[in-house]
Amino acid sequence: YAGVENPLYTRKEGVTMCLGDAKETVADLVSAATQAPAKADAAPDDTAKLLHEAKEVIIVPGYGMALAQAQHEVKHLADALTRNGAHVRFAIHPVAGR
Q1: Is the pLDDT higher at 2 or at 4?
Q2: Cα separation of 10 and 69, whole Å?
Q3: Could you say which DSSP state residue 57 is in?
Q4: Are 50 and 57 in contact (CB under 8 A)?
Q5: Could you give the 3-state DSSP secondary structure of residue 92?
Q6: CB neighbours of 81 closer than 8 A, spacing ≥ 6?
Q7: Which helix or strand (DSSP H or E) is residue 81 part of?
Q8: How far is CA 96 from its chain centroid?
């Protein structure tokens, strides 16, 4: 982010950013993506619901993912999302390789 104005970071709907320890965050997302959707009368897990309803997902791996060696977890996440019917794409981080 580095203070650069980017509408992707301030957009109110359709974009969800996950920040934190890369390996733990991705493992949590894989777990949520493989959970059955919550019942109507149960309190929905927002992350699981979001992942089950996602139709288009763009994963932008960065240095944190590589540093945490979370590549396998990211692949599991992409596979789980694809099984749920999402179109998963990968994008190159704008400062990758610096």
Answers
A1: 4
A2: 29
A3: E
A4: no
A5: coil
A6: 33, 51, 54, 57, 88
A7: helix 71-83
A8: 18
Chain position carrying tokens 């979370």: 70
One-letter amino acid for residue 18 of the chain: C
Reading the block at residue 68, the tokens are 């945490």
User: What is the C-alpha to C-alpha distance for residues 28 and 21, in angstroms, rounded to an integer?
Assistant: 11
CA angle 89, 1, 12 (to 5 degrees): 70
Of residues 35, 21, 22, 27, the one with CA closest to residue 77:
27
* Tens-digit pLDDT profile for residues 3-32: 566 666 666 676 666 666 667 777 777 787
Q: How far is CA 40 from CA 33, 37, 43, 49, 78, in A?
A: 18, 9, 8, 11, 26
Domain boundaries, the chain: 16-90
Please tell me whether residue 7 adopts helix, strand or coil conformation: helix
Region 60-69: mean pLDDT is 78
At residue 87, does pLDDT exceed 80? yes
